[in-house]
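User: I'm writing a tutorial on reading structure tokens. Could you give me a worked example: one chain, its sequence, then its tokens, then a sentence or two explaining what the tokens reveal?
Assistant: Sure. Here is the example chain.
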Amino acid sequence: MTVLSKFYQIFLSEQAKKQIEKIILYVALVGFFIHLILIYLSKFGFISALPASELFKNPISAIYTPFSFILIYEVYLLIYYLPKSFTTYITKQYEIITLIIIRNLFKDLSALELSSNWFDIKGDLQFTYDILASVILFYLIFQFQKQGMLKAPPQNYSNPKIIRFIQRKKLIAVILVPIFFTLALITLFNWTSGISFSANDYPSFEKINNLFFDEFFTILILVDVILLLISFFYTDKFHKIIRNSGFVVSTILIRMSFGVSGLISTILIVAAVLFGLAIIVIHNKYQKNYSPLAQSPIKDI
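And here are its predicted structure tokens:
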């Protein structure tokens, strides 16, 4: 067994996935109850050292904690599926950004003001954007997955080109595992070490949402570009190149959404997924009409 195979078995095998899933679910449950206990201890005046943040004012905000751990697991799944299917890997990117919006909904719900001036209140307006975006994204991801599962010409997995390409994707995935875990730990350390428990210095929800994931999607852009460049060694088919290039653009649009807030951020996210869906729909139609003799030996690069 090669060094690559050993590390792949340790980090990205089916058994490793099940173990990591179980650990993260337990941590998410524990984190939820700890957050909930802190909220009620603060509410009844047993402790007063907590930051003056919405995170510690409403019990609904406690859902924010387990969702954060679920997002970490989704990051792992993205890396897990990278060597297996490029479209599934992209789908995971879309699922992550959708879960971030869903997580925001719980924050929005905890601060919702039910009044006749709904569209004049910034928090209520953001809730409207988020709830509409989550439904739209859910449907777009469904359509994207549907397009990704369309039957393609059979592959010969003994083909040396396919084997080499899969090995390169496994190498990238193995490298990504420690990078992302290190990034998560550094982000957590920098955030906690810089926290002041005063109301003025505690970071806003927008800053908390952007923690880790702005750097995460920056790295994903680099990974997508690397995959695009590597794919040139294995196929010169126009529709494959356009599809992979389109997915890079989609990831860039998602990354840009972290640099803005409000409606513009939501529009960028929806536009990113919609663009990815349009790319894969056109790609599939192109492939369907393509001459079987001219097909690339690799279906999903």
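What the tokens reveal: The chain has ten helices and no strands. The two ends are 25 Å apart (CA to CA).
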